[in-house]
Amino acid sequence: LHGHLGESSITPQTDHGVAVIWEKPPPSYLKCNIGSSWCLSSLRVYSSSWIVRDSFGKVMFHSRRSFNDITSAVQADLMAVSWSAAAMADLKLGNIMFEFSSAGAAEALESPSLFPSSYYLCYEVFRFIHMIPRSSLQLVPVSCNSTASAIALSVTRDNRFHSYVASDGPRWLSTLLTQEAASHR
């Protein structure tokens, strides 16, 4: 696979001390936020989640899952991005803005040859992202991924290891989802 990864489609976005919140995608686009949580217990459980919203902020789908015996945070975060992009391809969705908050995964995706143990995962991320028409991958502050992060945290914090894909948003996050949907843009 060496030399077969194309140019990175990651657009870094940094937080310059200003509170950054989730923003609606432009009309005709969807936004898929990717969250993660890693429990360093003896089980080495890692969870990830994604939530897809339209340009009105309405939740279309969300999902969570757990992974066992993960050896590094970068590996886990790359698996989360790959799993999320594969799910969007399986759902036959297009025009997707993927947002994630792992600086380590972003570094691996920007320079895959510097992360030989994660090279295949980088390849998988780009393969799935490029399968989806008009998609992009963006590094954003954690504050932009609060809903997805809360879903992922529910797995490791509350031992909710059951994976699922569901329509609409989780009821227990309805207040946060309503606030984010009311955000300007």
Automatic annotation (TrEMBL):
Residues 48-152 form the RNase H type-1 domain. It holds the Pfam family RVT_3. InterPro entries: RNase_H-like_EbsB-rel, RNaseH_domain. This is RNase H type-1 domain-containing protein. It comes from Brassica napus (Rape). The lineage of its organism: Eukaryota, Viridiplantae, Streptophyta, Embryophyta, Tracheophyta.
